[in-house]
UniProtKB/TrEMBL annotation:
<dbReference type="GO" id="GO:0052851">
    <property type="term" value="F:ferric-chelate reductase (NADPH) activity"/>
</dbReference>
<dbReference type="GO" id="GO:0008823">
    <property type="term" value="F:cupric reductase (NADH) activity"/>
</dbReference>
<dbReference type="GO" id="GO:0015677">
    <property type="term" value="P:copper ion import"/>
</dbReference>
<dbReference type="GO" id="GO:0050661">
    <property type="term" value="F:NADP binding"/>
</dbReference>
<dbReference type="InterPro" id="IPR051267">
    <property type="entry name" value="STEAP_metalloreductase"/>
</dbReference>
<dbReference type="InterPro" id="IPR010185">
    <property type="entry name" value="NpdG"/>
</dbReference>
<dbReference type="Pfam" id="PF03807">
    <property type="entry name" value="F420_oxidored"/>
</dbReference>
<feature type="domain" description="Pyrroline-5-carboxylate reductase catalytic N-terminal">
    <location>
        <begin position="16"/>
        <end position="111"/>
    </location>
</feature>
<dbReference type="GO" id="GO:0006740">
    <property type="term" value="P:NADPH regeneration"/>
</dbReference>
<dbReference type="GO" id="GO:0005886">
    <property type="term" value="C:plasma membrane"/>
</dbReference>
<protein>
    <submittedName>
        <fullName>NADPH-dependent F420 reductase</fullName>
    </submittedName>
</protein>
<dbReference type="GO" id="GO:0016651">
    <property type="term" value="F:oxidoreductase activity, acting on NAD(P)H"/>
</dbReference>
<dbReference type="InterPro" id="IPR036291">
    <property type="entry name" value="NAD(P)-bd_dom_sf"/>
</dbReference>
<keyword id="KW-0560">Oxidoreductase</keyword>
<dbReference type="GO" id="GO:0070967">
    <property type="term" value="F:coenzyme F420 binding"/>
</dbReference>
<dbReference type="InterPro" id="IPR028939">
    <property type="entry name" value="P5C_Rdtase_cat_N"/>
</dbReference>
Amino acid sequence: MTTADSAVPDLKNLTISVLGGTGPQGRGLARRFAQAGLTVVIGSRTQEKGAATGAELAAATGGAITGTDNLSAAEAGDLVLVVVPWEGHDQLLESLKQALAGKVVVDCVNPLGFDKQGAYALKVEEGSATEQAAAILTESTVVGAFHNVSATLLEDPEVTSVETDVLVLGDEREATDLVQALADTVPGMRGVYAGRRRNAHQVEALTANLISVNRRYKAHAGVRVTDI
């Protein structure tokens, strides 16, 4: 959902890198972006695993997907998504700080814990995973998005429309417009601006509530914003 007066670059001229793209969420997003005709590079801890996943998804979608290690993917991407486990989030970003300088980085990470009562949000010193990314990647433009999208739906080739809104958080209008446009490339999905980075905590934490919803109702619930 972009505004008419926004100058959003043509996404088809950009390379979308997905760090942690061999996990369910990253793999699902990469699949959908490739199906939308975008050029995608999957990053993984090892070049071999990244390449194998890239080849698998290229064969499944017919899209322009390749895979490699996280560093090479970070270097290759114009727009870089971080879809890695919370454990090690800060260490990975520290190691990629130089490679990500000057780029728009989309943090999709949810700091969650799990116990016998289910999922719950973890406290983050910086406030949220998105704010932690911004504190580390001082030469990048950090946006938070894609926190509440079901990996199961993203990965299911039988699901042709992913009916959900993507809440996009950031301080730079051009960057949030770009990420909203990225969300809009997936059928059924809509990017919605949801505030500045300081508001990312509650969006990341909402994933714990959605996990509870999904377990109770055996569903793959997402978020829809009304009246816009």
